[in-house]
Amino acid sequence: MDLVGACRAFVAVSEHGSFTVGAAAARIPQSVASRRIAALEEHFGAKLFDRSSRSVTLTPFGRDMLPSARRLTELAEAMEHDAERAKLRPFRLAVPAVCSPRRLARLVADGRLAGVHLDLHPAGPGERGGLARALEVRAALVAVPPDEAIWRVPLGLAGSAEPEDPAIYLDTLRAGRADRSARRRHVWLQPEDDVPHVRDRMMRLRDAVGLQPTQVGVSASLVDAVGAVLDSADLLLCSSDQADELGLHWRPVGGTELVRGYGIAAGLREDTARLVTGLGASIAHCLGASTATAGSGRSVRAAPGRSGGLG
Question: pTM for this one?
């Protein structure tokens, strides 16, 4: 039996003294109101109304039960109101600062369709982890090694001139004897990639192919890095989507695979599952990843106060 629905019918009929009018006030058919009240009477084992052809009046038992029925219906209405407010409560999510405004707006719109009202906080990789640990956000998209990632974003090199080859090999940036006086080309990492699993791998690759230490470096900001690339032959480490947004020509790095990995740091497992299940594809699009994968490791099982393998 629907106890709340039955009590609503009981209260409405008692207030109006009529099954017809009471049912209309409760926005249910009269037959439904009659069945619900009959079920309530059967449940309690006593009559709530004295019925006649002209009127409906409360029995002594009905008068005694009416205050409790009112409290139950009022509590149910308050609970429904609270549930609607809870669904509208913003879900504070820290996201990479490199995500474009258009993609962030699309993520917010997709969240609303999924019943999640996102309040996005763009930030760098270290800051996102700190926000999650301090519980200043409900969840954060954090940088993790690719083998722990839910979302993977392939990286390559982009420049102002379109390369002739399908990939860019770092050893082609070495200065030859004939052009030692010329300015050496540089590869710039943006702050989003200043994490061990990207930065350290780039530095090892730099040393392996014999580049100068200064030829691969981390820029203070994405704007500074792009500025250096636009007026020179320098290159920016980025995703292909990011290169398109910046108007740069992108190629993969020859001979190696460089990937941004993203997981979720959240205080509640339910929040992690909600993002992955309900918004996984939208988050993938926002990050420039191809799909959301069934990630493993800490990035999926983020515990309170942990960032799931921050770089």
Answer: 0.68
